[in-house]
Design goal:
With about 230 residues, this protein is an alpha/beta fold. It contains 8 helices and 6 strands. It has a single domain (about 1-225), classed as 3-Layer(aba) Sandwich (Uracil-DNA Glycosylase, subunit E). The chain has helices at about 1-15, 20-30, 70, 80-90, 130-145, 155-170, 200-205, 210-225, and strands spanning about 50, 55-60, 110-115, 150-155, 185, 195.
Length: about 230
């Protein structure tokens, strides 16, 4: 039933129009396009998660990129952040190819599911708190269906916060004080541990704040938790 339920949830996510500001922005970007992608038919809608329904590792990002996933129709597909992430997943044996530039390029994930805290591309890549709150139910419902997940890898502070909220919503307890995000930070417990990783944005990867070695190390740790 998980696959069928995930497909049904995907349809609900794609049809969502809860946040007027995000609806206006994602559709404006899809109409105006970037010059380099003028021949593309932009997706311009919310993005569901994707990957292996039996995944042991869930990778949680922030939101679609305006000219990345909002263009291609798949999270982390068609932008520099995705290039960095998919290369790491490939090295870790979690993806069958090291890059992804379009939805029909043959990318497949193994024991890995990629999702996001916010499903529409936000202006300035900054969703508002009310928008994050409206989107939270999509993440909670996805994670509830992914019954084999054993660790959630949170890419950045906002993804970490979304992971904490989802864990609490699904019956987990949060220690006090509130666990702080950091690269390699871990929060054990039910329904699954959280693991922190700096987001693979260009501002992190170009400056060396996040290196390939750092990403590989945290993915190895995620695999160890998932197999433990």
């Amino acid at each position: 039933m998980t696959r069928a339920e995930l497909i049904a949830l995907e349809r609900e996510v794609i049809a969502c129009r809860r946040c007027p500001r995000l609806v206006q922005w994602r559709e404006q970007v899809a109409r105006e396009k970037r010059a380099a992608y003028r021949d593309w038919d932009y997706w311009g809608r919310p993005l569901p998660g994707f990957g292996d329904p039996d995944a042991h590792i869930a990778v949680l990002g922030l939101a679609p990129a305006a000219h990345g996933a909002n263009r291609t129709g798949r999270l982390f597909t068609g932008d520099r952040s995705g290039d960095f992430l998919f290369a790491g997943l490939w090295r870790a044996g979690l993806a069958n190819r090291p890059s992804s530039d379009r939805i029909d390029d043959g990318l497949a994930l193994s024991s890995c599911f990629i999702t996001a805290a916010v499903r529409c591309a936000p202006p300035g890549n900054r969703p508002r708190p009310d928008e994050r709150n409206r989107c939270a139910t999509w993440l909670e419902r996805e994670l509830a269906l992914l019954t084999e997940v054993r660790v959630v890898l949170c890419l950045g502070q906002l993804a970490w916060d979304a992971g904490l909220r989802a864990r609490r919503a699904l019956g987990g307890e949060l220690p006090r004080p509130r666990p702080r995000f950091g690269h390699g930070a871990e929060l054990p417990g039910e329904p699954w541990p959280l693991l922190g990783c700096f987001h693979p944005s260009q501002q992190n990867t170009f400056t060396g704040r996040l290196t390939t070695t750092m990403l590989d190390d945290v993915l190895r740790r995620a695999l160890a938790i998932a197999s433990g």
